[in-house]
Structures are given as structure tokens and as C-alpha cells.
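Re: [ENG-882] Designed sequences occasionally contain unexpected residues at chain ends

Forwarding the minimal case from QA. C-alpha cells:
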């Protein structure tokens, strides 16, 4: 029998209180700037959103994209997302971020992708696996945007431990009194760039006081003809 995913169980339990994180007073200026900036990145595109949670960011992407396919591992958070995003050019699905091909049951490929506050929950050892699986669902040249937290003492939950793989963990307490050990990494700009090296072009990292965004275009695979030309030029 497959053991339950602790992160999935945590977000299922947290679903009803999840959006409180967006109410922290000190983060409001950043959030307004990001909310104004994000939609334009997906205007007119076919967007794939990974780990959409309660749809806080989906509600900004869906109205401007030609179509949005959003998935999350937690049915509990998806139920909230469905209630805040009007139906239309939108589809939701329960799915595994590490097996996106199983969730997207068609030959359709997307020309944009977004994941908000997911990167930090990916073990460092699985980042490349996740990115390659994501890119397999995207067209060459597709636009990708990741958004996540910076660690800010006094606002962020303290890091309780760092494991042998370099992943950092937090202890989080929910309203029901339960305590959860949650993976939460805070990558540097150099680490973000290194993670997409060889997979992306036109890479940009933007930082606000409490958040960061990584933007890039999926690298177009080099054809044998291109490689032969490059070698001849060298």
C-alpha cells in the first residue's frame, strides 16, 4: 500500500485557512505589485498551472489566457479554486506535479506555465526531474514563471532544520492543533539560475521584499543540423 504524501496531507488539512498567508499586513505592497504584473505574462497564451492550490493566482491568469489548465494534488484546495474562478476557458484536475503527462490526457502542449509557491516544496534532488517533466508538456519557447517566498525573519516561519541533502524544513501548526514538518527551501538567485541551466533561455529573476519570481523561455532543442553547424564554426 502506498504511503500517504505528507505535503498533500498537510495542504488538505490547511485548505480552509490557506489564504490567510495573503493577509499578512507587511506583505500587501508586494502582493499588489505582483498581482498587477502577473496577468500580462500569460495574456493570449495557453497556460498550464502546477500546484494551483486555492486558485489565488489562477483567478488572475484565467481571465487573460486563451485557456488555462490548473492542477493540484489536493481535492480540498481545488474545491476552493473552482469556486473563485468562473468557468469557461478553464479546466481543473487533481494531479501529481511529478507526473504531469498522466494528468494531461491529450497531445496538447502549452505555451506558458506557472507555479506559485511550489518550487520551495520541491526537494533539491528532484528539481531537475520536475522541470524536465514540466517542459515535456510545453512547446519550445514557452514562457515559464515561478513565484515563491524569500525568507524574511519575523515574517517567515523559522527554519527548524536542514537535512543532509541541503533541504530546509519548517514546523507548522494548524488551527486543529496538528503540527506538520514541511519542506520549504529558500533558493538564492544563483541556485535558481543553476537549476534551469541548459533548459532555459532569457532567464530573469525579480525580487521583492518578501517574494521572488523566476521567468524564462523553454530552450528550443537544438537540431542535429544546428549542432553540426556550431561545431564547424568552432
Amino acid at each position: 500500500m502506498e504511503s500517504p504524501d505528507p505535503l498533500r496531507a498537510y495542504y488538505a488539512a490547511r485548505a480552509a485557512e490557506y489564504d490567510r498567508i495573503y493577509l499578512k499586513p507587511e506583505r500587501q505592497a508586494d502582493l499588489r505589485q505582483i498581482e498587477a504584473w502577473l496577468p500580462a505574462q500569460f495574456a493570449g497564451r495557453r497556460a498550464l498551472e502546477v500546484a494551483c492550490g486555492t486558485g489565488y493566482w489562477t483567478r488572475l491568469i484565467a481571465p487573460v489566457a486563451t485557456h488555462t489548465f490548473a492542477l493540484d494534488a489536493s481535492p480540498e484546495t481545488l474545491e476552493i479554486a473552482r469556486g473563485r474562478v468562473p468557468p469557461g476557458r478553464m479546466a481543473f484536475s487533481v494531479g501529481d506535479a511529478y507526473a504531469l503527462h498522466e494528468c494531461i490526457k491529450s497531445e496538447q502542449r502549452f505555451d506558458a506555465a506557472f507555479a506559485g509557491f511550489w518550487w520551495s516544496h520541491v526537494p533539491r534532488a528532484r528539481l531537475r526531474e520536475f522541470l524536465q517533466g514540466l517542459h515535456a508538456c510545453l512547446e519550445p519557447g514557452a514562457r515559464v514563471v515561478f513565484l515563491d517566498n524569500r525568507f524574511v525573519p519575523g515574517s517567515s516561519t523559522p527554519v527548524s532544520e536542514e537535512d543532509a541533502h541541503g533541504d530546509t524544513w519548517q514546523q507548522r501548526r494548524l488551527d486543529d492543533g496538528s503540527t506538520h514538518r514541511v519542506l520549504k527551501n529558500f533558493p538564492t538567485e544563483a541556485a535558481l539560475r543553476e537549476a534551469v541551466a541548459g533548459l532555459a533561455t532569457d532567464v530573469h529573476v525579480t525580487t521583492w521584499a518578501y517574494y521572488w519570481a523566476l521567468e524564462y523561455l523553454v530552450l528550443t532543442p537544438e537540431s542535429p543540423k544546428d549542432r553540426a553547424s556550431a561545431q564547424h564554426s568552432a
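QA comment: On inspection the terminal residues look reasonable. The chain has one domain: 6-233. Proposing we downgrade this to a documentation issue.
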